[in-house]
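User: Quick one: structure for sequence A, then sequence B.

Assistant: Sequence A:
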Amino acid sequence: MEAGTTDWDRYYPDPTGSPVAAHPLAEALAARLATQPDPRVLLLGIGSGRNVGPFVRAGVRVHAVEQDVARAEAAKRAFVANDSVCIECACYGGPFPERTRVAGALSTHALLHGTPAAIAAAVQAVRERLETGGSFFVTLGSVRDPRFGRGTRIAEGAFAPSDGSEAGVTHSFFDEAGVRSLFSAFELEGAYEDCAAATVGTWAHEPDQARDIVHWYVKARLPEDA
């Protein structure tokens, strides 16, 4: 391992062998949680592990839930020496094995996949783990994404591409009304659509595939009276 790098910086590097940059929502949530006493964060999906670093550096304890068995086991091996990181294999729709309340939750890839019903179940499972006033930062598929409506229709708003690196994988796409409905139990601090070419996981998409992807970037908060 190179000097100055850590296990979470080098885990699952992109095809060039370079460290994978954390998602900007991870950086933003880590900065928010760093101001709280003994904070914990729930990561929905470990992905490339790129989002662990900002939280560890901010002194935030990480609990990651990953439903892919092989990826969960690889992540456990990668982070075994870090006692502030816990990774469990479980369905995103819950219930999660670890029941401790968390100050924040993050999903930058997991909730792009699955049907709207499955994504709604995952949002509810996260809600049940959040402390009152806790933050949930999420990326979702957008109907402005050119992949919307292509491939095999799985459910209303959900399609599985017929080719490419994610052939057969169900993706859900939301308009603004759909996003607001999904987070109706939360206070929306912000929700906007943007090109995801610079933030999409390079472990899941080649650059030429990523350049046209459009995501929702959502910042939600569990109300004090929830």
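Sequence B:
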Amino acid sequence: MSSVIKIFGDSNVWGDEQPGCTIGKNSKSSKSTFPYYIAGLLRCKVENFAVSGAALNLVHDMILFNPVNKDDIVIVYLPTCSKYGFIHNSRDYKEINDIIRYKLRSQIFNKDMGESTIKWMNNNMWHPQALYYNTIKYAYAILKLTQHSNVFFFWNTRHIDGKYLSGQDGLYDELKRRNNYYGDTYPTEITSSINFSDEILSQLSQITVDWDCVKSLDEITAELNLYKYPQGHHLPRVHFEYAHKIIDVFKERLNVY
């Protein structure tokens, strides 16, 4: 194939902790995450727009400012729910992508914030309904931005059967961080569902390859009796095996045999 595979997502498809991967200015992705193996099997070139630490809102921004074409094969790894970050005035930004990549470095929850402020935000910005709404909103917006291309969704939002479940690393990490500062004040088990239209959920289902990508990678890790890197990322061998398990989905959709 002569198409280009464009990758959007977070550290799991950037390749954090894998050999050859660097983070920061002039960073380089690993070439050993599953989208690269998919590209090898389809004989495609790769452009990686993933951002380490990204949440859904940041993935959306990266796609918005790096448009895809109708002949592109687009792999979107849908990470955690929206995190709140700022375009900090201490950095001299030169490019749109620099703003997108670095605004997440100024996360809103930190030890300098008063407990009353965090409680207010928890009640008005981070309650389960708002989180679930943002999950679907950004996923659907990403769909609209990529729908004229060949797009494949891989989720890590624990969004199963229309429900937003606990265990999401972004929300879970934020809650744990708050609890470290203020004691076990905030629950880390959250379940929420909102009745979005069946049409929206149907459209998302049609382009979804895996509703829980990390779970699939964990299962392969266990089957092969392998380990994960210290920050929880998976070995190249695991990504290799995963790519070979799902390649038929790509071939069928792309009519390539």
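The first strand starts at residue 4 and ends at 8. The chain has one domain: 4-254.

User: Thanks, that's what I needed.
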